[in-house]
């Protein structure tokens, strides 16, 4: 019987300790319903593999530094699939999902100084206060004030920041896969967008553009180096674009089992590809050494904890003997050059068995967990220095546009890596519109029906 390995392990770690969350900034939708009576359409979590569009209470300003945003664009992220699979702790029925979004400021608290009603903004997926030591050090994703989960503190020793729409384990904030969302500490977490840049070009600053950039700079990638990327999803493809177009990589290969994603990477970004379908870990590593005799100088894990390959690790996850499979990381370690570096941009949640710590130590490899990216640090810089001048194109991996009313179906289509039956293009990043959205920008995907995916 399939079980939630992360939750079961957490229960073993926590014992009978309380797991409640208390914060004036968390998901207060039920209280708002009683006070306002206004509703909106929003995607909600109802259980494992069960997400639904529902009429939910419209948020309002609750604190002096809040802003309420009319959503003009959101999307589904690979990290959202962990929620769909029930692999993240402390989800509750009717939690509103979504951590990548943008919109128009509808209202602000009296403490908001740099934004006004009508401003077009992108929201950082991580929520910082702007005042604690980590925020002052430009590490808003490590904020000390915005996440009070006792479960996380017990499992990790410290909490990272709250996240939009990502369970009470990450602060319990209502997300932006909705017609409206509330942004705490709005001056710190929202970036005002200048006129003349279409929504599609800027929306992904909320997460994946910053996350992929952070993955590269966090391991101090050097021009002229070689790099292997595990995972040809949106993060992996963005990492490849950063390396090839902006950081002067000598050679880049992406490893994945989805052929249409690999073809996309080869055609659109110009990287080498390796289809791992049917190959063992040993065969993958052997092939990578045939390509680079001394090993790869940098490796990037953009796949994550859910992708167990062997029967043994599938069984251990099912029986809650581990939360995360180490197989991808072990491939990275064995394929990386001695004294090379490994960047972990992918999500890992808990504990893994059989991690090859011996090879890590003996080969002198630096394994760097990137953490949740401090998007607040990067959003303005990447907009002005890379996106506006055309050096980096966030829309390179934008394949489809859908309506919010079909987002529940989009979760399952993205999870199943479906393909457009008309164009043959696999679904990657999508732009999800609401009733407040502008028409598609020049050259951007037009509105599709979810039934085009098969």
Task: Tell me what you see in this structure.
InterPro entries: ADH-like_C, ADH-like_N, ADH_Zn_CS, GroES-like_sf, NAD(P)-bd_dom_sf. Residues 17-30 have a biased composition (Polar residues). It is a single chain. The protein has a six-stranded parallel β-sheet, with helices on both faces. Helix 8 packs across helix 15 (375-387) and helix 11 packs parallel to helix 13 (327-335). The chain has 16 helices and 18 strands. With 454 residues, it is an alpha/beta fold. Helix 14 links the parallel strand 15 (336-344) and strand 16. It has two domains: 11-207 and 372-454, Medium-chain alcohol dehydrogenases, catalytic domain (Quinone Oxidoreductase, Chain A, domain 1), CATH 3.90.180; 219-369, Rossmann fold (3-Layer(aba) Sandwich).
Concise structural overview:
This protein has 454 residues and is of the alpha/beta class. Helices cover 29% and strands 21% of the residues. The chain folds into 2 domains: 11-207 and 372-454, Alpha-Beta Complex (Quinone Oxidoreductase, Chain A, domain 1); 219-369, Rossmann fold (3-Layer(aba) Sandwich).
List the helices and strands and how they pair.
Blueprint: H1 5-14, H2 29-36, E1 39-47, E2 50-57, E3 67-74, H3 80-84, E4 95-96, E5 101-108, E6 120-123, E7 126-127, H4 133-136, H5 150-156, E8 162-163, E9 180-183, H6 186-189, E10 190-192, H7 199-202, H8 208-217, E11 226-230, H9 234-246, E12 251-256, H10 259-269, E13 272-275, H11 281-291, E14 296-301, H12 311-318, H13 327-335, E15 336-344, H14 357-362, E16 366-369, H15 375-387, E17 398-403, H16 407-415, E18 429-433
Parallel strand pairs: 11-12, 11-14, 12-13, 14-15, 15-16, 17-18
Antiparallel strand pairs: 1-2, 1-4, 3-5, 3-9, 5-6, 6-10, 7-8
Helix pairs in contact: 8-9, 8-15, 11-13
């Amino acid at each position: 019987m399939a079980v939630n390995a992360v939750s079961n392990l957490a229960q073993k770690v926590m014992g009978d300790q309380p797991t409640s969350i208390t914060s004036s900034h968390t998901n207060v939708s039920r209280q708002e319903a009683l006070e306002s009576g206004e509703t909106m359409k929003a995607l909600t979590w109802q259980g494992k593999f069960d997400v639904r569009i529902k009429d939910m209470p419209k948020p309002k300003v609750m604190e002096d530094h809040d802003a309420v945003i009319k959503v003009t664009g959101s999307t589904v992220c690979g990290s959202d699939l962990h929620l769909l699979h029930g692999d993240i702790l402390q989800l509750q029925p009717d939690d509103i999902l979504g951590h990548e979004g943008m919109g128009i400021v509808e209202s602000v608290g009296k403490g908001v100084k740099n934004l006004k009603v009508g401003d077009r903004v992108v929201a950082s997926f991580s929520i910082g206060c702007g005042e604690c030591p980590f925020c002052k050090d430009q590490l808003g994703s490590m904020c000390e004030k915005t996440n009070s989960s006792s479960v996380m503190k017990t499992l990790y020793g410290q909490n990272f920041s709250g996240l939009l729409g990502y369970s009470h384990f990450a602060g319990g904030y209502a997300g932006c896969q909705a017609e409206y969302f509330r942004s705490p500490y709005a001056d710190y977490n929202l970036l005002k967008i200048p006129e003349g840049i279409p929504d599609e070009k800027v929306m992904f600053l909320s997460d994946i553009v910053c996350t992929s950039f952070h993955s590269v700079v966090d391991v101090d990638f050097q021009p002229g180096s070689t790099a292997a990327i595990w995972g040809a999803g949106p993060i992996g493809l963005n990492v490849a674009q950063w390396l090839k177009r902006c950081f002067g990589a000598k050679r880049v290969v992406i490893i994945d089992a989805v052929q249409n994603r690999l073809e996309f990477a080869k055609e659109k970004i110009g990287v080498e590809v390796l289809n791992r379908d049917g190959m063992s870990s040993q065969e993958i590593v052997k092939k990578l050494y045939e390509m680079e005799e001394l090993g790869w100088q940098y490796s990037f894990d953009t796949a994550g904890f859910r992708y167990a390959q062997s029967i043994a690790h599938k069984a251990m996850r099912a029986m809650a003997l581990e939360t995360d499979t180490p197989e991808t990381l072990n491939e990275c370690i064995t394929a990386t050059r001695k004294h090379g570096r490994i960047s972990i941009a992918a999500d890992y949640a808990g504990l893994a068995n059989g991690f090859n710590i011996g090879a890590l130590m003996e080969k002198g490899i630096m394994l760097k967990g990137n953490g949740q990216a401090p998007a607040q640090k990067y959003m303005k810089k990447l907009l002005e220095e890379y996106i506006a001048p055309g050096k980096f194109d966030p829309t390179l991996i934008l394949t489809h546009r859908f309506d919010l009313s079909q987002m529940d179906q989009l979760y399952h289509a993205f999870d199943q890596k479906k393909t457009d039956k008309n164009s043959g293009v696999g679904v990657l990043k999508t732009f999800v519109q609401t009733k407040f959205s502008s028409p598609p920008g020049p050259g951007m995907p037009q509105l599709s029906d979810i039934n085009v995916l098969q």
